[in-house]
Amino acid sequence: MGSRLIKPRTRAQARRIRRHDAMCRLIMELGQQDFRRRHGTATFGPVVVLIASYLEADNIGDVLKAVPSEVGGLQVSTLVVIDGGDDGTDEIVTAQGAYCAALPVNMGQGVALRLGYELAAAHGAKYVVTLDADGQNDPAEIPGFMAPLLADTADFVIGSRRLGTDETTDKVRMAGVVFFATVINALTGQHITDTSNGFRALKIEVLKDVTLEQDQYQTAELIISAANRGWRITDCPVVWHRRASGESKKGHNAFFGLQYARVIVRTWLRDRR
User: Fold this and answer.
1) For residue 162, what are the contacts with CB-CB under 8 A and spacing of at least 6?
2) Which residue in 51, 91, 132, 256 has the most C-beta neighbors within 10 A?
3) DSSP state, 8?
């Protein structure tokens, strides 16, 4: 899934990057070990539903119950990567019959998803569907969502609340969805209406090809990297529900917007090089 391409400007920066990358690799290897301890050499179905979860024990059980057992005649396996926390999420996942890999500390959704992508590729997946653990995405929409992949008319499908239904009421966040979609489309030549949606479906070949480095806000990096490599990207209408319970871990709007913009700029500059 690629490697770091932006050259550090100073030796101190280079050292910080090397330390951070080494720490991420170590934590991900501990996650790999946790998966092997729990599941050995398990083989996934062709479709893997991947959920990164951080302190979502109150919500994830209902999400897992709604995941279909097959899509288009293909078996579905569900994999939850627990991004740290000690709220008993792993017990809920196990009780629901899903696969589980737990990171020992909270590293960020991007790191958790990268581990999930690696596990999916190593254990037989052909397609990966990502969705949130908080109940904002409806797993019942997965069969229709995957139709372009199964028909081979797209390699990467992104859920769109703008084409579908947005049940939330945060007008600032809604405006941000429009703004960032406009920016990313301008940079990549795409026509995507919702570039910050975590509900995605991809062929495993896309995930093996893209470069992913971000610890958080990975959606922008994934879209830009896939677009720059020529993969076919489309969007699909979905319902964006309110959180089932609890508060978002993404931070307030200003923080989220600044960090998301940073990821866009860094990814675009990196891929240009």
Assistant:
1) 177, 178, 181, 193, 194
2) 51
3) P
